[in-house]
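As promised in the previous annual report, we have extended the structural survey to additional targets. Below is the entry for Serine hydrolase domain-containing protein.
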Amino acid sequence: MMRRRLTTAVLLAATLATVTAVPAAAAASGAPDEGQDGVQRQLDLLVERDGMPGALAFTGSTTYTAGTAELGSGQPMTGAEGRVRIASNTKSFTATAVMRLVTEGRLRLDETAARHVPQLAGSPVTVRQLLMQTSGLPDYVGLMDWTATGSTPEEHLALSLAQEQVFEPGTDWGYSNTNYLVLGMIINRVTGEDFRTYIEETILRPLDLDDTYWPEAGELALRGPHAHNYGINPADPEAGVTDVTELPGYEFGAAGGLVSTPGDLNTFWNALFGGELLPRWAVWLMTHDTTDVGNRGLYPAGSRYGYGLTGHELSCGGMYWGHGGDLPGGSVVGGHASGHASGHRGTVTVYTTTQATEEATRARLNGAADAALCSTDG
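The corresponding structure token record, generated without further manual editing, is:
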């Protein structure tokens, strides 16, 4: 079957990619938009000014919504129980699973990936470099066949390895979904079970994340309540903007395949930073062994990338750590923050049902998160 590639380069680059840093909102508006009213204001602007069909923010105690769950239906936007493809937020789950193996002595950060993945024979790329996006491996996502299902990780990795290395391992930083594709393969080899099963057993079940799941091979629809998503379908880009709620989620794998809810995602962030999933030293390493990614792509100055986590200063002070992600039909940003002037600790998930690719739109998405995390009532 002929490989179909998106005609829009921005969409290719952003698919399964990270969401830009929270403080971008302050830069765009000139001042932080704090408090609960600020959260709702940003969501309303996303719908009314940017044309997003729907938008949601959930802090754990409060749900904010704007727009509709399905165009033309008049149906209100779904709440915190709605299922959503969390795209590259999945990387934080995968990184946590890898770090669990490290803490158990079953894997070392500085050992080569080739030890577990024969396709990388002769490559000096290490586990640490995969986690930190410093391997230089080309991204497979823009090369994959979106019209086919059932492709294997080995087939996807072969697409990447057929391309020229972007840079020598450890000499630069470059976001690539291939890094987390390989980490999933490493989990398989070390544990003797599929990375999906391992993450279910060590993260999803212990935290009772009952609404979070890995799509099965060939499964396109979302289970349970959910909003519809709209964008350019990479399997049929000539059709323009359509309903893209159905996507081959299984193919996104360890880099971006999870489906979750805002409620479950917030539970994960709280557990990770609360010490329930990893020893404190491991979480410290994930957030302190980092690369400055400020002014790279959509990352503003001061942004850092660690082990499957991005860090940014909030407009009210203190640090936010989490991740984000994009798919053709939506953008999701989530994470945990503590230490700002009010002493408030918060967790938030914000998402839209069309991908936020424009700078101003992205700023409002992140502005809602910043406002929620900086609110003493959040």
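Residues 56 and 182 are 32 Å apart (CA to CA). The longest strand covers residues 319-327. These points will be discussed at the next consortium meeting with the crystallography subgroup.
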